[in-house]
Design goal:
The protein is α+β, with helices and mostly antiparallel strands. It has 2 domains: 13-66, Roll (2,3-Dihydroxybiphenyl 1,2-Dioxygenase, domain 1), CATH 3.10.180.10; 68-120, 2,3-Dihydroxybiphenyl 1,2-Dioxygenase, domain 1 (Roll), CATH 3.10.180. The protein has 2 helices and 8 strands. A hairpin with a 5-residue loop joins β7 (103-108) and β8. The protein is elongated. It starts with 12 loop residues before the first strand and ends with a strand.
Length: 120
């Protein structure tokens, strides 16, 4: 029986790199004042800085060095559909979480590094 071709998946584009930090104010000062990046988002426990065509997100929590690595977030208009297409191709993702403002889904690459699909 002929093998079915893998479903076509739209190309992903990197949206942001997320660094977890217990020092969000100091990290914000570093990325904003020291490196001169423009702050584009400021929410409780979340700050985002423009870095060309992607952003650097600072998320309150244990710092990234204590984790496998920073989280790489990919943008998807329809997170659930993108998750389904990527899982069909062998990717490992958890459940889709739908919030009031955006939708996201966390996963891991084959080496265990955290990745995310996000409509944000």
């Amino acid at each position: 029986m002929p093998q079915k071709p893998a479903p076509k998946t739209p190309a992903l584009r990197m949206a942001r790199v997320i660094l977890f930090t217990a020092q969000i104010d100091e990290m914000s000062r570093f990325y904003g004042e020291v490196l001169g990046l423009k702050q584009v988002t400021s929410e409780k426990g979340w700050r985002e800085f423009a870095a060309g065509s992607v952003t650097i997100g600072l998320h309150s929590g244990p710092s990234s060095p204590g984790r496998k690595g920073p989280k790489i977030a990919f943008y998807a208009d329809d997170v659930a559909a993108m998750r389904e297409a990527l899982v069909a191709r062998g990717a490992k993702f958890g459940k889709v979480h739908e919030g009031e403002v955006f939708c996201l889904c966390d996963g891991k690459d084959p080496d265990g590094n955290p990745i995310q699909l996000s409509s944000r």
